[in-house]
Amino acid sequence: MSKEKPKVIAVSSGKGGVGKTNFVVNMATYLRSLNKKVMIIDADLGLANIDVLFGIAPKFNLKHVLLGQKKIQDIIITGPNDILILPASSGVRELTNLNKFQKIQLLTEIDSLDLSIEVILIDTGAGISDNVLFFCGSAQETIIIVTSEPTSLADAYALVKILARDFGKDKFRVLVNMARSEKEAFSTYRKLAIVADKFLNISIDYLGFLPNEQHVKDAIIAQKSFISLYPNSPFSKRLALLGDKIVNMPEDKSAGGVQFFLKKALRVN
Ligand SMILES: Nc1ncnc2c1ncn2[C@@H]1O[C@H](COP(=O)(O)OP(=O)(O)O)[C@@H](O)[C@H]1O
Ligand SMILES: [Mg+2]
User: Fold this and answer.
1) Which fold would CATH assign to domain 7-260?
2) Whose CA is nearest to atom 25 of ligand 1?
3) What CA–CA distance (Å, rounded) separates 75 from 62?
């Protein structure tokens, strides 16, 4: 029996600390409020922290899957608001560079999950490590988070460049986080879009922005999602707009999944 494939969205950045994990946790919570079935994959395999943000302590994680001790469906846990979470482990050096077989195993197992999930959000690490490229390279959509700091933009450009050149990615959506104004956010996006157009010949879409919100830290300390604690804040309202955009993104069946990865990244026809 055929089943609907989930929309797989990698959330990445060139530079660390720009708000990927915070975005993923809050977006998953928002999508659940729309009754979407959501799974988070914690793919920051060296420094996983989705579990910390949710205040949960999973017993098994991706390490056990990659060592052949568990199947993926056995390690998925149900977090707050029934968000499904595929946990990773922190500080395991073997996982910071998955080999080709582990990558194929992971994609195949994720592809064959029978959980009628509608959206998968992948919290990747930052930078241009092999794992980040793998998860972005095999997702249907890639959201790149930047801030207005020039270093964050330069690193985002480097990531986009490699994904475009080596993985055939030609579609990116930029989210400007911790923005001080809508205007500042859009001009940050434009800087990246202009160089990507000029030097890589790819167009980058603007997903939108999230304001700088000092209480985000309080939510992290409370180990709760920000939007559940402050549903009426400007951050939460903006997040809802982004969530509605994500839900309405047209499905791109040509990108993502095992076949796509094999063809693009491993050059297997
Ligand atoms: N919109 C925001 N406003 C203020 N602080 C934020 C915002 N988004 C994230 N942060 C803070 O930035 C830090 C890094 O966020 P995190 O989600 O862990 O980044 P990453 O996963 O990209 O490394 C955290 O301390 C978080 O509280
Ligand atoms: Mg993170």
Assistant:
1) Rossmann fold (3.40.50)
2) 217
3) 8
